[in-house]
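Deliverable D5.2: sample structural annotation.
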Amino acid sequence: MKRELAVLPAAALLALAACGAEQASEEVVGRPVTLSPVLAVDLDERIEASGQLLAKDRAEIAAEVGGRITEILIDEGGGAELGAAVITIDPERRKLERDRTRARLDEARAARSEQEREFARIGELHERNVASQTQLEQAETGLVRAASRLLAAEAEFGVARRALQDATVRAPFAGLIARRLVSRGEFVSPGHKLFELVALDPIQVEFHLPEVDSSRVRVGHPVEVTVAPYPGEVFRANLTLVSPTIDPRTRTLRVQAQLPNGDGRLRPGLFARVDLGVAKRRGVPMIPEEAVLQRSDGAVVFRIDSDNRVERLVIETGAYWNGSVEVKGGLATGDLVVSRGHSALVDGELVVPRHPDGTPLRQSLPTVAEAGENAS
């Protein structure tokens, strides 16, 4: 009798447990999530970038002849016009070398003239059968040699004259002497760097744009530039260079603009902020930022289908605006994506759409308007 009493409670417990499991299976139909629609948004974006100021022309001028620095005509910080003499490298020695080669040139010219007369004389004698054929050929050979020596002397004189010109180092373009790399009395060899010359008017600003903005800029596009030393002041310019290629490493486009800088206030190396104005785009598909998960294979979203099951999609994102992000392909306007409760979702999983406060929606899927209202 006591054994029967012990069995009855156990059976009752099993029946109650089975009933509870059946009720639980009816209640648990999927993971609760919040949905948001893909909306078409009209965007007015400002194209902004940061870069730096660069000298339009910048060069380290080197010696073309060897010798001792005899004079520095324009020192550091000084301005040099195009062709202005900056440094001299022993020009007196180059003058002597030029004069010596000129004397050799004069000798070579005189020798050729004499050989021409000799060839003409031998030619006349040969016509009267007084001079032999051998003598005529020797006179002709002497004339050829004299002409060759004259050409060599002319080349020597040209080199000496060019060396004299190069002994005075001139500015290849108008600019400022940024650095002087030698001192008076120093001996230099050809190729030795003498000074650095920079041109500051106009000055260039160089910056990079993401590839998404590469189609929105062109040469001549107006830009506004600001720099830290002059807060609140805007410098206006126009684009002078839009690189024909995208950098494959950074996926950016190199762009340059020129700024007038007659007063020299803008200096190379300054950090610059560039504003290229407003870019208008219409009907851009966008979803809430919280709907996008960053995974090893990229940006991931979960789209819900008519059976309340989710589809895992890897998307490419674009512009960010007011808590939303642009979707580049993979989703269409009106699609519904999971914006909350999706951190542990897997492809094909059953979900239960709910309000943001946790209360369930009706069994059918919400419309685009309803989902947008609930997600907000």
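Annotation notes: The helical segments are 2-27, 91-127, 133-166, 368-375. The CA atoms of residues 14 and 20 lie 10 Å apart.
The annotation will be released with the project's public dataset once the embargo ends.
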